[in-house]
Write a structure and sequence with these properties.
By secondary structure, this protein is α+β, with helices and mostly antiparallel strands. About 35% of the residues lie in helices and about 30% in strands. It has 4 helices and 6 strands. It has helices at about 35-50, 75-95, 95-100, 125-130, and strands at about 5-10, 10-15, 15-25, 55-60, 65-70, 110-120. The strands form 2 sheets. Strands 4-5-3-6 form a 4-stranded antiparallel β-sheet, covered by helices on one side. The protein has a two-stranded antiparallel sheet with strand order 1-2. The longest helix has 19 residues, at about 75-95. The N and C termini lie far apart (about 40 Å). The relative contact order is 0.21.
């Protein structure tokens, strides 16, 4: 997958970029530098298995931001569910002693998430472009 510009797949051309924000359960400030680095590695690997691409990643002690290019075959809700489930399991395993200070149950991410489409022309420009199409006779 090309992470810049248009991509092709069978009979379509696409450019699907999304901004995902994941928050730790109860907004606990449990993400340290080592966990953040491992999360980036896990998300990069997981997105590749979905034929998607990690474009940018960063975060703070209680949340992360993921900018990713998606493949049209990937259902966003299933992809996000997979990212959350697998990364939670791996981080809880790799950093068990640290995470147990914050959580007594096998959890890491909040059930909620924010997923936004990004890039391309502003909505107002697209609306104007469509409105100004030639008249059909």
């Amino acid at each position: 997958m090309n992470n810049q510009g248009l991509n092709t797949l069978h009979h379509c051309i696409y450019d699907l970029k999304h901004h995902l924000v994941l928050v730790t359960e109860y907004r606990r400030k449990c993400i340290n530098k080592e966990i953040l680095e491992r999360l980036e590695q896990h998300f990069n690997r997981l997105l590749e298995t979905w034929d998607c691409c990690l474009l940018e990643f960063n975060g703070e002690t209680d949340h992360v931001h993921i900018l990713m290019a998606l493949n049209p075959k990937a259902q966003p809700s299933k992809l996000v569910g997979n990212l959350k489930t697998v990364s939670s399991r791996l981080i809880r395993k790799e950093f068990a002693e640290h995470i147990q200070k914050y959580y007594w149950k096998p959890i890491f991410w909040s059930r909620t998430y924010c997923l936004l489409t990004v890039g391309g022309a502003p909505l107002s420009v697209l609306k104007q472009y469509i409105e100004n199409q030639a008249e059909v006779e």
